[in-house]
Design brief:
Blueprint (H helix, E strand, L loop, with lengths): L10 E7 L23 H21 L3 E7 L14 E4 L3 E4 L13 H10 L4 E4 L12 H4 E4 L4 E5 L6 H11 L2 E5 L16 E3 L3 E4 L7 H13 L3 E4 L2 H5 L6 E5 L2 E7 H6 L2 H8 L4 E4 L2 H4 L5 H4 L1 E2 L6
Parallel strand pairs: 1-2, 4-5, 7-8, 10-11, 13-14
Antiparallel strand pairs: 1-15, 3-4, 6-7, 9-10, 12-13
């Protein structure tokens, strides 16, 4: 197994929340969110802080470089999911994205961008956030799942993913757009692409059955297979437990697959065995954070830049 892959970053940004709570502004179209009665806000916030801290400890022990930023405000409940507001790309390119929920726009932090400029070779920052007043949104690597090897941007059509803006991003960053619709069995649209599919170097995990159009479904499967990847087909039940929200990253001993304990518990033995043929799985326990409708992939903004 090659330790290096353009698909797997060796560094990530993680925002550790001090006042975490599920965001009421995103609950309208995020069917993965859970608002449980009975838990005090303080207890949920403490649990989420500890979960994020444990993720940092586990990843660093694996040799992943984790750039930790603290969020001590109570104005940004989803700040623990920074992959939605910025992404980084080989060649020194950074993108900043327009966000659908008004309170999520406050998550953009220019101290993060300045850190990237100081520690990595950044040639260009393209900021799309000025398109928010025009109602154009593209929520980063939540809205898009990027195949960095084949240069394809897979994107579910939603109010978080504007096809026109996606085309603009793909033109500027040299990706081919692959737009499709995806719904659960109740007909509810999937809000972000990265809860439906994960693209790693040697395999792709996806619920093909949730892709609404059969021709598009076949085309996605064909493109993934043509890339030489094994398809790990996920069920809708597994997607509901964030099985699509996994992320390949690189540590000191090679590539690993970061996923939540919730996800690990719903994968069957054959799926685990197939993935372990390529890379080890590293489960991370984040049940409180997952109540906000995102999981491990959402928490980790990968850094695909060269170090200074």
């Amino acid at each position: 197994m090659k330790s290096h892959s353009v698909q797997a970053p060796s560094a990530v940004v993680l925002i550790r929340p001090h006042h975490f709570f599920p965001n009421p502004q995103t609950a309208v179209d995020n069917s993965f969110q859970v608002n449980e009665a009975g838990s005090s806000p303080q207890a949920v916030a403490r649990a989420a802080f500890q979960e994020a801290s444990d993720v940092i400890t586990t990843l660093e022990a694996r040799g992943v470089r984790v750039h930790v930023f603290e969020d001590e405000t109570d104005q940004t409940p989803d700040s623990v999911f920074p992959n939605n507001w910025f992404s980084t790309h080989p060649g020194g390119h950074v993108a900043i994205y327009p966000m659908f929920a008004a309170n999520r726009r406050k998550e953009r932090r220019y101290d993060v961008i300045e850190m990237l400029k100081q520690k990595y070779r950044v040639q260009e920052v393209i900021d799309y956030s000025g398109l928010e007043p025009d109602g154009l949104f593209l929520e980063g690597t939540g809205a898009m799942v990027l195949d960095h090897i084949e240069r394809i941007a897979y994107a579910i059509r939603s109010n978080r993913t504007d096809p026109v803006l996606l085309e603009r991003f793909c033109t500027q960053f040299n990706y081919e757009p692959m737009v499709f619709e995806a719904r659960d069995r109740k007909g509810v649209a999937v809000y972000h692409t990265n809860v439906l599919m994960c693209i790693a170097t040697d395999f792709a995990a996806i619920s093909l059955a949730m892709v609404a159009d059969t021709k598009r479904r076949a085309e996605i499967a064909r493109r993934l297979e043509e890339s030489g990847r094994e398809i790990i087909d996920l069920s809708e039940e597994q997607i509901a437990h964030f099985a699509g929200n996994m992320m390949e990253i690189r540590g000191k001993d090679g590539r690993i697959l970061a996923l939540s304990q919730t996800t690990y518990d719903v994968l069957d033995s054959a799926q685990i065995r197939n993935i372990e043929n390529y890379i080890p799985l590293v489960p991370l326990n984040i049940p409180s954070i997952e109540k906000a409708g995102g999981s491990v992939r959402c928490m980790l903004a990968g850094i695909h830049l060269s170090s200074r």
